[in-house]
Amino acid sequence: MNQYHLPVRPRRLRQSAPMRALVRETTLRPSALVLPVFVREGATEPQPITSMPGVVQHTLDSLVAEGHRALEAGVGGIMLFGVPEAKDAVGSGAVDPDGILNLATARLSEQFGDDLLIMTDLCLDEFTDHGHCGVLDERGRVDNDATLEVYAQMAVAQAEAGAHVVGPSGMMDGQVGVIRHALDDAGFDDVTILAYTAKYASAFYGPFREAVNSSLQGDRRTYQQDPANLRESLYELELDIAEGADIVMVKPGMPYLDVLTRVAEASPVPVATYQVSGEYAMIQAAAERGWIDRQRVILESLTSFARAGADIVLTYAAIEAATWIREGAHA
Ligand code: PBG
Fold first, then answer.
1. Of the residues 251, 253, 281, 317, which is catalytic?
2. How do the pLDDT tens digits run along the chain, 331 residues long?
3. Helix or strand or coil: residue 222?
4. N or C terminus: which one in the chain shows less Cβ crowding within 10 Å?
């Protein structure tokens, strides 16, 4: 029936799969997906993380196997997090070349060279016995500038181990500039900085704390941002750009799509976002109960990030999603 003689019918472009493919505005690239991975010191078997079904704490060997899977799937890189056996007040394991994160980086670098982009988390929380992202002053507060000194050493240790990209995630003021300076002084001017620019004090990091055996008491609200703020993120962007960030990130992902869009509109450099542990856990939990279609929800959520302005997405589902996309799937 053509009763109303409507000249404008948007449904015309939705009528078939080829028509929808023709006009699809956003496509996900496997090479834009980055896989976060955990490597645990002393582990002889991969250790499951109960709050993140399907994600494990790797041994050095299973990490290499995961690197091969990531390379085969065509993902854009892997972001490494270390889980040390021993922690102390200043996070010594983070700067020690034999610390687990640096050892794992060296192992991957040896194995893959420049074929796989190796990114390293540049933060102290996995290595400190109090669980904070920095060192503490005598009153127990996170000491910004003392922390920057350790970050500078950590950056050089990670670069020496073979990291292509370092990801400062501690939200200390001046971290990007100090790290850039330290890397350049040590001759690592090609090591790239993926700055956690707008990182919120989020309850969505819950499962990550299990993943890295975190010993944190309290919260990170004196350095991570208030979920209520948006303007602050645009200011953080300006600062990180001025300090030399090569790529900027908004984190978490789905609850902060508005922030992502605003940062993407303003940023002169590529923008990443991180679908964090709690986002992943919620999808897994609902899918396990049969309440949602896991593959479709994952592809839809990743597409939302790209549509909102992300050039790069960190996701625990990177390998699977890359594989689905290469098989022709879309949201
Ligand atoms: C800090 C860091 C955290 C995450 C990435 N880097 C935890 C935190 O800030 O408390 C969270 C990632 C996730 O939840 O998946 N090194």
1. 251
2. 789 999 999 999 999 999 999 999 999 999 999 999 999 999 999 999 999 999 999 999 999 999 999 999 999 999 999 999 999 999 999 999 999 999 999 999 999 999 999 999 999 999 999 999 999 999 999 999 999 999 999 999 999 999 999 999 999 999 999 999 999 999 999 999 999 999 999 999 999 999 999 989 899 999 999 999 999 999 999 999 999 999 999 999 999 999 999 999 999 999 999 999 999 999 999 999 999 999 999 999 999 999 999 999 999 999 999 999 999 999 9
3. coil
4. N
Question: Is 251 part of the annotated catalytic residue set?
Answer: yes
Ligand 1 midpoint to CA 204 (Å) = 9
Decide whether any atom of ligand 1 lies within 6 Å of the 279 Cβ: no
What is the C-alpha separation between 263 and 254, in angstroms, rounded? 14
The values of phi and psi at residue 285, to 5°, are -65, -45
Answer whether 121 contacts ligand 1 (Cβ < 6 A): yes
The residue assigned the tokens 């200011």 is: 235
Closest CA to 73 of 329, 319, 327, 330: 319
Please give the number of the atom of ligand 1 that sits closest to the Cα of 204. Answer: 14
Peptide bond preceding 252 in cis form (omega within 30 of 0)? yes
How many of the other CB atoms lie within 10 Å of CB of 273?
31
The token pair at 240 is: 């990180």
> How many angstroms does the Cα of residue 167 sit away from the middle of ligand 1?
11
Protein residue with its CA nearest to atom 12 in ligand 1: 276
199 flagged as catalytic: yes
Distance from the alpha carbon of residue 328 to the mean position of ligand 1, in angstroms: 32
pTM of the model: 0.97
Q: Which CATH superfamily is domain 24-326 in?
A: Aldolase class I (3.20.20.70)
Q: Where are the domains positioned within the chain?
A: 24-326
Rounded to the nearest angstrom, the distance between the alpha carbon of 177 and the centre of ligand 1 is 21
Backbone angles phi, psi at 33, to 5 degrees: -100, 135
With contact defined as beta carbons under 8 Å apart, do 194 and 212 qualify? no
